[in-house]
Write a structure and sequence with these properties.
Length: 550
């Protein structure tokens, strides 16, 4: 149907102007002859433009006959066709309700441009792996990220990316990440104490858990990234943490303005918010420069093993890099690795509070394995999937139903193919981990449900029951997949296990719901308030026991 609408729209484009001129001539015959040659020339140029730039590209576009969601809005086509729904749900609806062979096409107003969505393993493989470097992040998105983070791994393309990834990858190797387990475990213990304290001091044990979680993941990435302590968990208003928060997560409005309007002009806009963010960015870079100099000084003087443990020290030991290069990497790790894991942990607690039986099973595994052990003495092997299979399954499943980065986008920088279909240069592809992870074709009828057991039983347990590992899109795949995947998974386990061993998480009130906020990463809107029941507290144990028997 959309194809025929497109055809009608474009034929109308082609005929509109000649018909208009013919009517004018018919109505007023003098008009035809009295027209100046300039007027005819301008009409001719306009018509040629429509033919060559608008209609021929549509009729030649190999995507024009591919499936599209049905509910187009006449000339607006698929622009915002699902109204006010969050974009995560829009893509989920499209993937689940548009029969397709791996590509769905969304048309922009008047069928002038289109975007494709890769929906199945074969097409995802083409975009993310086989023809990965035919696709780049759109320039405008990169521009706004570069103005905050500099040219770090997440913002560079092509050969620059290949070279940078080779430098950074060893710092995220399995062995390197496992050495960070004591840091993750100590942070888990610290977070546990903060929640215990807050639960006893807040009425009914209702605690806003998202804030301490976000603060602890910031501390972790500061320590693991550059061996620096933000002290964000201890002090909500720690200077560096505040500076980082303000500048690295500016409002979407600022990003939009920053993308389209030159910096010298933004500085002159008489709104304090802009100036604050831009000055903050300059200050953050200055702070980072100081921290880096101090680190270099310490490394030169001491040459101790300890200094080689954090990521930036590891990179520095592998070559001679400029300060700007190192600061960009560091800010990239802070940005990519802080709110993503915080989001994952917050959603895990939310899902556990909604699924008490699953929480009981997890509590039993965590309390048995951790017992009264000192968290700081544990190593990475404690959290291996053979030793803590249910913890692993809960983390995988949380990240499946709530992937921290729900959508990403690329643009074809050359003509390429996806699933055998030729794709013109300039086409945009959406890769929506949220929607792919909830695709009923890939995951079955219960795709949207939280079922950790899918990672434990059955012939495809290693891939959560899906036929292909590509169905799990949380960290993407291929040369641009998340470099911090093992880091994030181990961190999540080390933080979640001590919490579930000690507390019971319950809804703050009956029928509680949470809305989703965020664009690049998703988080519970307005924070996450849960009843945190300390199981060392007799009263709490009793209520939990009563609830279990009810
Ligand atoms: C639950 C946690 C995490 C999730 C769900 C996640 C997800 C992702 C995704 C989807 C991408 C690809 C983005 C794109 O290309 O559009 C990505 C890239 C990246 N992530 Fe993560 N991430 C997580 C944690 C981390 C951590 C902890 C770090 C570092 C400490 C990290 C560092 C990076 C970097 C540097 C890239 C860019 C890789 C490249 O382009 O070569 N991430 N992540």
């Amino acid at each position: 149907m959309h194809y025929w609408r497109g055809v009608i729209t474009h034929v109308s484009f082609l005929l509109a102007q000649p018909i208009y001129l013919a009517i004018r001539c018919f109505v007023d015959t003098t008009d035809f002859t009295s027209r100046s040659s300039i007027s005819w020339f301008l009409h001719g140029v306009a018509w040629l433009y429509i033919v060559t730039q608008v209609s021929i590209p549509f009729f030649k576009n190999p995507l024009r006959r591919l499936p599209s969601p049905p509910n187009e809005r006449f000339l607006l086509c698929h622009l915002n066709f699902n109204g006010g729904k969050p974009f995560t749900t829009i893509y989920e609806d499209i993937i689940n309700n548009t029969p397709n062979d791996g590509i769905v096409v969304l048309w922009g107003p008047l069928y002038l441009q289109c975007e494709i969505i890769a929906t199945q393993p074969e097409t995802l493989m083409d975009v993310l792996n086989t023809h990965n470097y035919d696709w780049e992040k759109p320039k405008l998105i990169r521009k706004s990220l570069i103005s905050i983070l500099g040219e770090g791994l997440i913002n560079v393309e092509g050969s620059k990316h290949k070279a940078m990834r080779r430098v950074v990858a060893p710092s995220f190797s399995g062995r390197q990440v496992r050495e960070l387990a004591p840091l993750f475990c100590a942070s888990g213990a610290a977070l546990r104490e903060v929640l215990a304290h807050e639960a006893t001091h807040h009425h009914g044990g209702i605690v806003e858990v998202a804030s301490p979680i976000s603060r602890v993941t910031l501390d972790i990435i500061g320590a693991a990234g550059v061996g620096m302590n933000f002290r964000a968990l201890e002090k909500e208003d720690s200077k560096l943490a505040k500076l980082y928060r303000e500048t690295s997560q500016p409002p979407a409005f600022f990003l939009l303005v920053d993308t389209f309007i030159p910096k010298w002009f933004i500085r002159r806009v008489p709104w304090g918010g802009f100036a604050r963010i831009m000055n903050g960015q300059v200050q953050l870079w200055q702070e980072m420069r100081v921290i880096l100099q101090q680190k270099k000084g310490r490394m030169n003087q001491e040459k101790t093993e300890q200094h080689g443990k954090d990521i930036i020290a590891h990179i520095m030991q592998s070559g001679d890099f400029s300060d700007d290069y190192l600061i960009s990497q560091l800010l990239t790790f802070l940005a990519a690795g802080h709110s993503t894991t915080a989001s994952a942990l917050a959603w895990a607690l939310w899902l556990l509070s909604q699924n008490p039986e699953i929480q009981d099973r997890l509590h039993s595994e965590c309390s048995t394995t951790l017992g009264n052990k000192d968290m700081t003495e544990l190593d990475a092997s404690t959290f291996d999937s053979e030793k803590m299979p249910f913890l692993t399954a809960v983390c995988n499943e949380t990240l499946r139903v709530y992937p921290s980065a729900p959508n990403t986008v690329r643009e074809a920088v050359v003509s390429t193919t996806v699933g055998g279909v030729p794709i013109p240069k300039g086409t945009t592809v959406s890769i929506p981990p949220w929607a792919i992870n909830r695709s009923r074709v890939l995951w079955g009828a219960d795709a949207a449900e939280f079922v950790p057991d899918r990672w434990l039983h059955g012939p495809n347990a290693a891939t959560g029951g899906a036929q292909s590992p590509l169905a799990y899109a949380t960290f993407l795949h291929g040369p641009r997949s998340c470099i911090g995947k093992s880091f994030a998974l181990l961190e999540m386990k080390c933080l979640l296990a001590p919490l579930v061993a000690r507390f019971r998480f319950e809804p703050a009130y009956p029928g509680q719901t949470v809305e989703m906020a965020g664009f690049l990463t998703i988080k519970p809107k307005g924070g996450l308030r849960l009843r945190v029941c300390d199981l060392r507290n007799v009263e709490c144990k009793a209520t939990s026991a009563i609830q279990e028997t009810l």
